[in-house]
Amino acid sequence: MSEQIQKITVTIDGKTVEVDPGTTILNAARQIGGNIVPPAMCYYKPLKGSGGKCRTCLVEVSKGSEKDPRPMPKLVASCSTTVMDGMEVKNITSERVVDARKGVVEFLLINHPLDCPVCDQAGECSLQDLAFEHGADTSRYEFKRREFDKIDIGEYIKLHMTRCILCYRCVYTANQLTSNREHGVLKRGDAAEIGTHIQNSLDNEFIGNVIDVCPVGALTDKTFRFRSRVWYTKPMDASCSCDKCSGKVVLWMIGNEVARVTARKDQYGEVEEFICNDCRFNKKDLKDWNVEGPRKINRHSVISTNHYEKAAPAHTTLLNKA
Ligand code: SF4
Ligand code: FES
User: Fold this and answer.
1) What is the pTM of this model?
2) Residue 252 falls within a domain, yes or no?
3) Among 59-63, 240-244, 301-305, which is the least confidently predicted range?
4) Which of 84, 172, 185, 254 is a Cys-bridge partner for 65, taking CB atoms 3.0 to 4.6 Å apart?
5) What is the 8-class DSSP label of residue 253?
6) Domain span at residue 184?
């Protein structure tokens, strides 16, 4: 008989959940859901080893555990801190966290250009959302920002290092999906940059996924770059029988034309299944795809502009009650 796993209890912003031992605070919060889930700019569930770099997911542990209730003296990264039984955590209910997160956003924006109006990632940029929800109104930074030339890394991908926030997600993606580790973050501190050695891994047929995992507009799809603002496109779920990947994608349509193909992402912006380069870059004919229907987009996202969904069933409930 299989041994029953003893669940442990954690309370986050007053909401209690039972989770498996070894669960991180961030994933425990995701099990509760809603606005108590800390934002994450570097953690990415499908990527092993990701997290612990950006500090946007900081939380306050106000009670360590049932056995040792002392609070943790410093804020901790929720993506890499595992829960203890009886732990109590404060995220949006902690002034320290709100203040620290504002500081983290300010740091992330120190070198990031404020070029959202011309950036290809506008409308689906995690940093834009983070700054809007958690950032300060103004920057105190007065110095020149880092600038880099744009680099063509292969036929399909452009690297604009100026926008990179060094989250390492693309490094982990290529590590996980390609056979040779050819690239990484070169140099350290304020000189750190994604090495152009990434060029060497571009012959891998899954490398296009680095575009999907990049939280900002640093890695962009050259087949779509500057063709349209994302909110003018219509996202459709589609699939094909592919012998390299699941073939489950989102088609971003302009009229009847397939403007861009991406992997499907979940509510936390994480790829559900990585797709191959062939599906992403080469199948731009509607005949290549079996279109399943419109992609459900969060109605608070700018992408949902002009996309109509069925009204919430509130009136139906009232009618049912009548
Ligand atoms: S290029 Fe994008 S995914 Fe890669 S480290 Fe920079 S921000 Fe992260
Ligand atoms: S998401 Fe936790 S440190 Fe970046």
Assistant:
1) 0.86
2) yes
3) 301-305
4) 84
5) E
6) 112-136+143-226
